[in-house]
Amino acid sequence: MIPANLPQVISAIGGLGTAAFGLLEALKPVIPGINHIGFARIGKTVACLTPNEPGARPPMNALPQKNITDSLLANWINGVDVSSQKAIAKSLIKLHLSPGNSAELALRTNVDPALLQEVAACIVSGTPLTQQQGDAYARFDLIVTATLDEVYQHADQVYRNWTRALAAVIAVVLAFVGGWSLEATGFSAYVHSPEMGQALLIGLLATPLAPIAKDLSSALAASVNTMQAIRK
User: Fold this and answer.
1) Fewer beta carbons within 10 Å, N or C terminal of the chain?
2) Percent of the chain whose predicted confidence (pLDDT) is above 70
3) 76 within a domain of the structure (yes/no)
4) Based on C-alpha coordinates, what's the Rg of the chain?
5) Tell me, what's the pLDDT at 206?
6) How far apart are CA 86 and CA 94, in angstroms?
7) Is 228 exposed, middle or buried (0-12, 13-18, 19+ CB in 10 A)?
């Protein structure tokens, strides 16, 4: 038999999950590494697409590779819209293109090296691109866009998965401490009691239920009320 207070129980468990996510947000300034989760692959990909010129010199009129990575990391940490982050990254990568690094960048993006070098030279001199050069530049743009889209989507998924896992750990700890606070026989007795297992289970359910707890409890309440009305 389903308990009559099940909707309230679900709401309470979801509230614990919400509290765990809130506590995780509060811990981000204390544990900076949380905000960096997922960015490693972005930084590696952007570094690959912003090679220096021979002699380890950054191109003229472009940000050095380290500054590009730092700028993108700042946007990632501050939660800038992912579409905007990708657009900024692509702009900085294209700005970094120069005749000196075009050959290496062409190999990394599978674009004709000679044409990309001509494109870079035309951009520096302000010369209009020919049809063939424009086609090569468009292919380069498309490949960079696809690469950044894949890496940002993957990074975002990694970040969300890790933050959910961390929030689940916090929820389990909170549930454990909450159950312990209600145990009158001491810590040792609590550790070996069924109540501890119940607390851990509630903690594990808290974060998955947090986003849907309100809708689920409302649906269950409506279902109970409907069945009660039918049986009258």
Assistant:
1) N
2) 89
3) yes
4) 27
5) 83
6) 12
7) exposed
| Structural domain includes residue 13 | yes
Quick check: 156 and 80 in contact, CB under 8 A?
no
- The pTM of this model reads 0.79
> What are 197-228's pLDDT values in tens digits?
888 888 888 888 777 666 666 776 677 667 66
Task: Tell me the C-alpha to C-alpha distance, in Å, between residue 101 and each of 51, 53, 88, 125, 142.
Answer: 6, 5, 20, 16, 19
Q: Which domain holds residue 16?
A: 6-231
Partner residues linked to 53 by β-bridges: 57
Q: How many domains does the chain have?
A: 1
Q: What is the largest CA-CA distance in the chain?
A: 86
43's enclosing H/E stretch is helix 39-48
Judge whether 21 lies within some domain: yes
What backbone phi and psi angles, to 5 degrees, belong to 40? -55, -45
What distance in Å separates the CA atoms of residue 67 and residue 84, rounded to the nearest whole number?
18
Does residue 53 fall inside a structural domain? yes
DSSP sequence for 177-217: HHHHHT-SS-HHHHHTSHHHHHHHHHHHHHHHHTTTHHHHH
What tokens were used for 82? Answer: 């992912």
